[in-house]
Amino acid sequence: xxxxxxxxxxxxxxDAANRGVRYLRQIGSRHVDxxxxxxxxxxxxxxxxxxxVKSVLDLMETVGGEGTVATAAGRYFGYVIGGALPAxxxxxxxxxxxxxxxxxxxxxxxxxxxxxxxxxxVDLLQLPEGTSGAFTTGATMANMTLLVxxxxxxxxxxxxxxGAGLVGAPQLRIxxxxxxxxxxxxxxxxxxxxTDGIEWVEVDGEGRMLxxxxxxxxxxxxxxxxxxxxxxxxxxxxxxIGESCRAAGAWMHVDGAFGxxxxxxxxxxxxxxxxxxxxxxxxxSHKTLNTPYDAGVALCRHPEEMQASMAIGxxxxxxxxxxxSDRAPEFSRSARGAETWAALLSLGRQGVSDMVTxxxxxxxxxxxxxxxxGFEVPHQVHFNQVFATLPGNEEMCAQIVAHVQASGEAWFGxxxxxxxxxxxxxxxxxxxxxxxxxxxxxxxxxAKAQLL
Length: 452
Ligand SMILES: *Cc1c(COP(=O)(O)O)cnc(C)c1O
What we know:
Blueprint: H1 4-27, H2 53-66, H3 86-98, H4 108-124, E1 132-136, H5 139-157, E2 173-177, H6 182-190, E3 199-201, E4 221-226, H7 238-248, E5 251-255, E6 280-284, E7 296-300, H8 303-310, H9 337-372, E8 385-388, H10 396-407, E9 413-417, E10 420-426, H11 434-451
Parallel strand pairs: 2-3, 2-4, 4-5, 5-6
Antiparallel strand pairs: 1-7, 6-7, 8-10, 9-10
Bound molecules: pyridoxal-5'-phosphate.
């Protein structure tokens, strides 16, 4: 290589790759939780003269590595985290060498990958023709992007132009599921809308909106529903909600952060009838699809409205060819969609379906075995999420969680579902095997036996 400085980068890249290989070869047999006993060493005061690259990577590998939670491996069942598929992980590594900004002028090939990935997702999720969108850092930012779009579109239909600001704008209404994810409420606030004024819709025992309890909608209303309840995986009744929204001229938004992918399996297909009636959808890559963090997708059936809300239009930018920064909040950003492209290309249509079906079957088995151990799972297993509690002894659930976490055999967290205390298990890692599920169930069984 001619440039010796680039040779230094190439060496660091190769060194880091080898360290990554070592990490991946041991993470599956390790204690799941992090060993944080030495992490303070990472906060050394900034040296006057820099250290050599190898010593930086040494510190990162040793102290940093042991301070990681083994979310990359199959015995992590907390939240909905997912791991990283081989092609997506490899793509991340290549992207770090390329250092492209996702834009027509600075990263034409990665932009093409993102475009392909977006159209594959629209196709896989059977969203209406013409639907398009943008990659964001996650579902929170995707929700925010679409809530801003919805807000602006409803207001401009009411004669209040984009650019006029919110002061003096007509009052919009928000109708939302009582179970909508907490981050969506944050997005509502970031969009300058009122959470205090939300008209809540009560839910059934699975966490689905009771459409009979929806208020009358109108053309000033934004309806927030979800595909994939974080405790049960349930999907709101989309057809009924969609038809009401259509009849009233309301905007229907679906948060499907992790759950929308379950449409690609055959176990839940009917639940997604009516999905195509919505105006906007959110889905994550970094959770269920198992790409590295962070990537989410904002999808809209009116991409021109997204553009009207998000476009930049600086004098030195080409006026005609809108890029990703014209549909999402960020201007300069990584080509995170290229990892989604790699994940989808390596799985194919069947591979995506097989993966979500595997998550579902593991979750069904977890629920069955927990019931056999005397736990109550007060919901159907719609997808990959299982909430469990101990009837008459709910307080013990937190102790069981702590016991299992300390054992290093598995990791999941406590949860409260419809007023009941228990714990929640999420199957979302592409490597999770029958053996991993065996170890999870045994760890819970041991914890319960020791505590009783
Ligand atoms: C995780 C999650 C979010 C937020 O997604 P991020 O990608 O973490 O920003 C929103 N809604 C639901 C249902 C989620 O599970």
